[in-house]
Amino acid sequence: MPPILGLLLLAPASPADCAGDGARLTIVLRYDDVDAKSDMGLEARILSALRSRGMRCTLGVTPRVVAGSAFDPAQQEGLPLPPEKIALLKDALSDGTAEVALHGFSHQTVRRKIDGGFMKPFGRYHSEFFGVSRPEQERKMAEGKRILEETLGVPVKTFIPPWNAYDWNTLTVAADLGFENFSAARRGLVLASSPLRFVPRTCDVADLREAVASARRVKDREALIVVLFHHYDFRESSPQNGRIDFGGFESLLDWLSRQGDLRIVGIAAAAASSGDLGPGRFWWNRNALLWQITPPLLNRLLPSDAKPLYLGVAAARALKVRLWIVVLGVYLGIAAAAGWLAGRIAPRLRARSPRLARGAVGLSLAAFAAVVVAALWDGEPYSGGATAAFFMAGACVGVWRGAAGGSARSAILRAPRGSRSPAGSG
Question: What pTM value is reported for the model?
């Protein structure tokens, strides 16, 4: 790693952020996509494994999952939870092994995702809620909450948006409907006035051991690890994409149970006992955006200990400032390089035709606007879009200075000496 990166990113935030040896690290388990179509056999095994070890988790339950593909926005039938799934959930709720969160209403995307090798880096992800009108979001969340509460006989206080995607309406509706906890990812929007407690996902189940090791190195007494996993993370359910088999999952739980400095809980329990989880802490922890927009090569050079952690405010603030210094420095360098290159090309265009030079200015501005819109679509910029946006910003400045600016300077140099200043024009 370059020394400057180490100096900027590895320095401790503050002695107050370091816990003593007796501190306990909180790990939150969040298992999503429990619905009428999900693998009940796998869910029963997971709950049994947790129960036998005295561990807890949050189940993200979808009350009316679509009968067909969740990635098809066409109108589809919604499937209710079958009686045997309801019985499984009630059993886990009764002994405290699980708590239930509302995971959308139908878990159906409202639009098709832009895909393809070129467009994919610019974002636009699936969502059931992002961009949906407030009344429709309120209808879905209120009906979903009512169904789960009446079916399972427990209050539902946590909301998990499908695909971790939401907008400002989602936050206000969730609060108005009585949800207290909100769990998505660290890249989402936030309202400073929101009463919600934010417990975002920080790592996957296959990466949990490394996350615990990172937390022990960082030593932030307020840090949380929020583990998100699905059925398709298990090879038994998804042989091609699964990263862990059930035997490995049980071994992981055994390993966790032997660690004296850990506690394994669900989202609501963590929210009730983990200090300030308000919007301010979430805002400072939105470093996921920085990891997203950082060029992949640089990302591999940056320290990763904080990536799987939801830090306390002081540690998160210090880290975010250092990250912005590095990331903005990289992109300003990209913009400067693009400006230099465009500034060398533009005078050649001007020499051929002033009209061609003016057209290049207009074209570069239009390209910059198009790239920014694509990069910020749905609030999900990634490194490809960020690189293109900064490159085009620098190119615009370089083209303008080399074409329009250069023409103005040439006109001044060609003008009679007496006409170059107001004093000489009288």
Answer: 0.78
